[in-house]
Amino acid sequence: MEDSAEPSPKRRRSEDGYEESPPRRRQISRSPSNVSPQYRLAERPAHHGYSRADGADDSEDALDHRFYRDRRSTESPSPSELHARRSLTPPLPEKPTQLHYRQKLVLKGHKKGISAVKFSPDGRWIASCSADATIKIWDSRTGKLEHTLEGHLAGVSTISWSPDSKILASGSDDKSIRLWDVATGQAHPVPLLGHHNYIYSLAFSPKGNMLVSGSYDEAVFLWDLRAAKVMRSLPAHSDPVGGVDFVRDGTLIVSCASDGLIRVWDTATGQCLRTLVHEDNAPVTSVCFSPNGKYILAWTLDSCIRLWNYVEGKGRCVKTYQGHTNNKYSISGAFGVYGCPPCQYAFVASGSEDKTIVLWDVSSKNVMQRLEGHTGVVLGVDTHPTQAIIVSGGADRTVRIWRSDEDMQHQQPIEPEPLITDA
Amino acid sequence: MNLSLVDPFVLAQDCPEALTGRLRSGHSTSIRFSHRGDLLASGRLDGIVVIFDIETNGVARKLRGHTRQVQSLSWSADDRYLLSASQDWKCVLWDLKDGSRVRTVRFEAPIFIAELHPKNHLLFVAAIFEDQPVLVDISSEIPVKRTLPSAPRRSQVERENASEKQAAQDAKQTSTVTVFTPSGEHVLAGTNKGWMNIIDTATRQVQYSTRLTNNLIIFIRTTASGRDIVVNSSDRIIRTLHLPDLTDPKVDFENMRLEVEHKFQDVVNRLSWNHVSFSSTGEYVTASTWMNHDIYVWERGHGSLVKILEGPKEELSVVEWHPHRPFVAAVGVDSGRVYLWSILTPQRWSALAPDFVEVEENVEYVEREDEFDIQPIEEIHKRRLDLEDEEVDVLTIEPVKAEFEPGEFRMPVLLDIEASDSEDEVIAIGAGQFRRKSPGQGRDWMNDNEAVASGDEQKKATANGTARAQNGTKRRRAE
Predict the structure, then answer these.
(1) Which of A387, B228, B273, B389 could bond to B287 as cystine, CB 3.0-4.6 Å?
(2) Where are the WD repeats (chain B) (predicted)?
(3) Considering only residues 224 to 263 of chain A, which have any Cβ-Cβ distance to chain B shorter than 8 Å?
(4) Can you list the domains of chain B with their CATH numbers?
(5) For B141-186, what is each residue's pLDDT tens digit?
């Protein structure tokens, strides 16, 4: 199964990949990949995570938890929390420390590793793209394969849904971006051409009139979708661009690259408004805005995911999530929500090179659950827009759907046993 | 969400300063911004209405249905419907959801201006050439036209003392411009004798009249609040007036007196003004000049001229100010291009790297106490991670003004838009051969089968998508 562990080869940041390019000073000065133990040292004590269930570290955990709650009461709480406290004053609902996602479906069909999976904004579909140059659209409820989109000439690294869930954009190693009509499964006749190298990342604007793309050619392009033309080129980075995203009102774009920089751009003027960089300059492979648009979440190849407050001062790293492995692949993830509506909390979901999916609480940075099941690196993770469902895809060529047990109470259950769908 | 990151000095500017862009699709004759400000409707000489997307500067939709120059445009409050009035003596209400024609209303004379009711997109008011203005109810298939009076309201005393000549003159007056107040309860009408009438929409009676000038009133525009109006008249003077709150039931029309707040004119050159418009807040008044290339901007606080926007080498007709931003669009009379003025935002160097700071003068660097202390790297990492103990809220969405709301109408993005190039229309006539579309051509097919709704046209476009797209590729290659 050696080849199965190899997705679209361009997404792999292997050592030989760096050797291809002439050695540069910055890369030499960058800490070599074997120094990652230093982060392990810095990791929080291992009492968090799934090992907590056996109660070994209960006392310490409880202490940690109490501290966390006390501080919350002294600091200014968010409006939603205020509301929650006021409405349910006597029994303040305990903030869950664990999540209970279970694997529900395994979707097979891709012939090579899967580089990304995405729920459609209406939650109805799952799109997965693969190094086998195809994109598959699955029904998110039943796992039925709806369409296989064929047309790209090389592996597909990235996909993005239009806000109305009708169009899917895909970026491929054949340097083209294609738009697909999801209803018919047909490709739009005019591909978006302009990048000189592999396309790594795509994002639709919230109105669906623009698309931003990041490429291995170090450029970030803003496309006018109606005319299928590049509207603006952002002189973004000096290394391959790993991730791009639009903020929820479309006025900002974020991009990140292997040069370790995260840049925030004004969509209207094309100007760089902010640059975020962590001291170690670790290559940034993926980036996304938080659901409210106030923070930026960035994946770096030092096995860290960082949450940045890009507004305050010059931008500040507010959280570092650790516990997964990420030294080689461009792994992505998403924000998710847990808890009942009056007091909802957010978690971060990410794939990992140790074949798991890791879920962290956003504020406490504790690992809330590790989802095991994949037999290869998990490259793409996405959360359902409204329900407690996670979808993941990875180098083992499978798409897996995970549901939270709590969610099953008010959702009608589908197949109780993991179902294998062969396409 | 970009506002917190943008240079506050740039944000503080509220008046555009430089020509920053051009839009082109055919020969534009009239423009109007949508209420949300993301779209600009442009009526063309050949009768086609083009919707520009201000974000991409591209064409979002083309609406075919008129055969002659488009005279005026008006958006519904939710930006879903657009009313266009053309010199083919027709008004068309378009549904931008699918580009279809909801209603077509024919008139017996050219239309000066047609304005949609601010709350009811199935009601509009139109000023007609040498005729009385009409309030048109298009809620049913057959439009119901109700005539509005143009004769000014006279007091009891005046009416008794009126000579026959005066009565005859009053009766002969016609309205040259009619607009709704933002509440929609009243219509402001300007007449060819310089009177301004306030007409109640429900009773269709003139409630108040005032004579602003002896000449014809060309144009009236209100601010978003409806408390200020700007009036352009053929005596080469632009007047601004402050209105009382007309929605207040206690407003006393009998004893009301409207005073002209400012008179803007060019005393030296005696320029006359093509078109006037308010800025988003009503703080500025802007006007395009007849036989001149400039856009004048006056500030209303002191009534002074603050800026002359230059750039194009042609006379400008319609000038419009963006509903929220310091952004002005104007139409060139000769070329039919739409010129855009806005603020220039220079790239700030400090944004390009986190340790860059823009300073006014040299600053002596002061070393931190522990700046060069050597500490174990693990220790630093651990300390840093322990500091990350704040509560973060990544979910709560702060309501922002003028933001896109999920339930609102949003125009679908058409990928197959035929000839979405906003530049000159070029058609392929053979392998590798192209020629420019001749100006009258767009009109021919329209006269042949006028009954074809543009909705059908869209369907055809999708069906022929492949063939068209091939042309599209060629076209781009040719550029």
Answers:
(1) B273
(2) 63-104
(3) 224-229, 231, 247-252
(4) 16-342 (2.130.10.10), 426-478 (no CATH)
(5) 899 999 998 888 887 777 777 777 878 888 888 899 999 999 999 9
